[in-house]
Model the fold of this input.
Amino acid sequence: MNNEKLAKYIDHTLLKPDATEDAIRKVCAEAKYYNTASVCVNSSRIPLVVKELSGSDVKACCVVGFPLGAMLPAAKAAEAAFAIEAGAQEIDMVINIGKAKDGDWDYVEKDIAAVEAVCCGKALLKVIIETCLLTDDEKVKACIAAKAAGADYVKTSTGFSTGGAKVEDIRLMRETVGSEMGVKASGGVRTREAAEAMISAGATRIGASSSKSILEG
Done:
């Protein structure tokens, strides 16, 4: 796969709590240079990212309910709404992992649906299920809940928990959601080989802070 094609799989990401304006600008410049799919940041940085990406076809992507997913559905929906109003074109939300561990899948689905109602027709919705904290059965049920709620993608990880993307999880998620949903591998994808392995397993997006290393080897 050539660099131009691979770059369009990548959400160039900077989510560190101490990320400065200069660091965000650098990420945006890199994203425009490589023509990645998006730049993914925390919601307070969306206005800056929208400004920096102006004139390019790189999307502004925002995490919501990040990184724990434990806030009320209305709070996630409100954050998504404010981010979209500020120019976010893609939303990556974290499920309520505790409710998933409780087996309360109705709550998990409604939580996702609350954000989807805000995104619908305005922004792409990716749902982070935090695979490292779930059993395989829970991963399947989380994907089913995301699909039922109308999300566009399921995503492995925040990168802030106990583990990141694994090829076997991408395969399981792809098998569960079928061909009509996207699957995003995120967390610990730092090399071209790792990115291509995820794509071969069924990933249609890669979340990476190491985009430059991936694309330049």
User: Anything to note?
Assistant: The two ends are 13 Å apart (CA to CA).
